[in-house]
């Protein structure tokens, strides 16, 4: 992996004023209206980067380019599509550092984690190329005589064909990994892509798009639009040229699903991931995973531990282990690889503070001091939470972790299943029978046994129940949902013999 980049590799992606351009039909362009949009450095609340604010007319041009390019790409052999993705993966490894640097500035992701995300994403792209060749290269042949009353005079060739144009909308917290987890399967399946990155994380998206450009993809196949959601958000998701929407984010996804036309939807919409700690759990292991699961990237992960449901028999011991571990987390700047960095925005920090104040007013015990400076919130462990508190149900997306004490695992399961958010959960126990019993009873998309919730590895199925999503992700699942089935029936002459 190369940590630098050639001086001319990113030439053309910025205007004379320094604003980053959008990408349409193989060209980096400035918006005709002259409007730009800023994103903020979460550490300073000052402008980090400026980008184009695309108009609806430019969105139309982007979709027209995507539709035109997709026709030829659909006829491109699978092996050639795979070669293109392998070129992208190699460029990601060679030019990982500039993309990581963007994430440090615009989403306050610690340096080492930002670089790791890019490298992991390169692996995802390469794996998708290999899996796509295998999974999409297998088609079926059906014969009519397998159905009662038919002779062998029809042959049905069942093929997997592209959907068309896929709109990819990743979130701020993983603007590279959750972008390529959508883009790579879409392209491998023969679709064109329109990428709408989050405003916070958009420049990482610009740099990522340049990798696809440099990899030599046909013009119009990969496109990037930036702009205000209030002006182009609904226009994008309801555009008649959209044939699939892959979205990761929060409640906005529910609004999109209600407004979108009859197109396939792949949506991951957040979670209130519970951690059930049974009376026989290995508490050293549980504490380690709760710490990492609850506080890595300041808790700004859909799969973060959002609520600990601890058996009363071991709750005191678990808490005594967690407190010094939480107090030992390094709080500071992402450039210094601090464990806890500022959350994404002032509004996010204020929302977290509202949850903390509500819990305090209703009698929760703060095991570590709640402290906030701007967007930086110190890691906070809250005990004796009860179901009347907002934090027992709402997703904070920040470094605050509530603990509810329960009488056994059954009330813990009941609380888990009563939540509208059901992405992942985890259970800690040394009894495999109990582990499977709890897992079977938890109505969530994934249950981790003796480990914190996690999205990866990226080829594992990844899905949420209830308000946590529609459809399933993971490389193979994404490839399967990025295609549709087409049948071609060959009608043969009727056989000369008579059926008995």
TrEMBL record:
<keyword id="KW-0560">Oxidoreductase</keyword>
<dbReference type="Pfam" id="PF00171">
    <property type="entry name" value="Aldedh"/>
</dbReference>
<dbReference type="InterPro" id="IPR016162">
    <property type="entry name" value="Ald_DH_N"/>
</dbReference>
<protein>
    <recommendedName>
        <fullName>NADP-dependent glyceraldehyde-3-phosphate dehydrogenase</fullName>
        <ecNumber>1.2.1.9</ecNumber>
    </recommendedName>
</protein>
<dbReference type="InterPro" id="IPR016160">
    <property type="entry name" value="Ald_DH_CS_CYS"/>
</dbReference>
<dbReference type="InterPro" id="IPR051020">
    <property type="entry name" value="ALDH-related_metabolic_enz"/>
</dbReference>
<feature type="active site">
    <location>
        <position position="268"/>
    </location>
</feature>
<dbReference type="InterPro" id="IPR015590">
    <property type="entry name" value="Aldehyde_DH_dom"/>
</dbReference>
<feature type="domain" description="Aldehyde dehydrogenase">
    <location>
        <begin position="29"/>
        <end position="487"/>
    </location>
</feature>
<dbReference type="InterPro" id="IPR029510">
    <property type="entry name" value="Ald_DH_CS_GLU"/>
</dbReference>
<dbReference type="InterPro" id="IPR016163">
    <property type="entry name" value="Ald_DH_C"/>
</dbReference>
<dbReference type="InterPro" id="IPR016161">
    <property type="entry name" value="Ald_DH/histidinol_DH"/>
</dbReference>
<comment type="similarity">
    <text>Belongs to the aldehyde dehydrogenase family.</text>
</comment>
């Amino acid at each position: 992996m190369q940590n630098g980049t050639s001086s001319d590799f990113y030439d053309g992606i910025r205007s004379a004023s320094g604003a980053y351009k959008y990408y349409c039909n193989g060209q980096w362009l400035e918006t005709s209206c002259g409007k730009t949009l800023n994103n903020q450095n979460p550490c300073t609340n000052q402008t980090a980067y400026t980008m184009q604010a695309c108009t609806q007319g430019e969105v139309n041009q982007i979709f027209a380019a995507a539709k035109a390019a997709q026709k030829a790409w659909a006829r491109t052999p699978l092996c050639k599509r795979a070669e293109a993705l392998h070129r992208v993966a190699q460029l990601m490894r060679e030019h990982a550092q500039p993309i990581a640097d963007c994430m440090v500035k615009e989403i306050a992701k610690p340096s080492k984690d930002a670089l790791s995300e890019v490298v992991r994403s390169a692996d995802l792209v390469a794996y998708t190329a290999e899996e796509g060749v295998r999974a999409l290269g297998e088609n079926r042949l059906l014969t009519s005589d397998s159905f009662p009353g038919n002779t062998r005079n029809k042959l049905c060739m069942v093929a997997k064909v592209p959907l068309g144009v896929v709109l990819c909308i990743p979130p701020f917290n993983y603007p590279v990994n959750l972008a390529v987890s959508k883009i790579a399967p879409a392209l491998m399946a023969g679709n064109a892509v329109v990428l709408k990155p989050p405003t916070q994380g958009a420049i990482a998206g610009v740099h990522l798009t340049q990798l696809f450009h440099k990899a030599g993809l046909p013009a119009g196949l990969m496109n990037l639009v930036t702009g205000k959601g209030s002006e182009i958000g609904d226009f994008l998701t309801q555009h008649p040229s959209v044939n699939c929407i892959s979205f990761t984010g929060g409640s906005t996804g529910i609004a999109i699903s209600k407004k979108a036309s009859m197109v396939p939807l792949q949506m991951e919409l957040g979670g209130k991931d519970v951690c059930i700690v049974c009376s026989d759990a290995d508490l050293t292991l549980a504490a380690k995973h709760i710490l990492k699961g609850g506080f890595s990237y300041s808790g700004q992960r859909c799969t973060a531990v959002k609520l600990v449901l601890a058996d009363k028999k071991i709750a005191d011991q678990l808490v005594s282990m967690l407190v010094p571990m939480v107090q030992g987390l390094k709080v500071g700047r992402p450039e210094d690889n601090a464990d806890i960095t500022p959350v994404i925005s002032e509004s996010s920090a204020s929302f977290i503070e509202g949850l903390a104040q509500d819990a305090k007013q209703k009698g929760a015990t703060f095991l570590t001091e709640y402290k906030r400076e701007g967007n930086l919130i110190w890691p906070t462990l809250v005990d004796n939470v009860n179901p009347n508190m907002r934090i027992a149900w709402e997703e904070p997306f920040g470094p605050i972790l509530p603990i509810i004490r329960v009488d056994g695992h059954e009330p813990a399961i009941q609380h888990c299943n009563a939540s509208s958010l059901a992405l992942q959960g985890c259970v800690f126990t040394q009894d495999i029978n109990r582990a499977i019993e709890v897992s079977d009873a938890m109505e969530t998309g994934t249950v981790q046994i003796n480990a914190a919730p996690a999205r990866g590895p990226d080829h594992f199925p990844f899905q949420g129940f209830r308000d946590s999503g529609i459809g399933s992700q993971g490389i193979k699942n994404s490839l399967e949902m990025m295609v549709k089935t087409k049948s071609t029936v060959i009608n043969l002459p009727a056989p000369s013999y008579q059926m008995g």
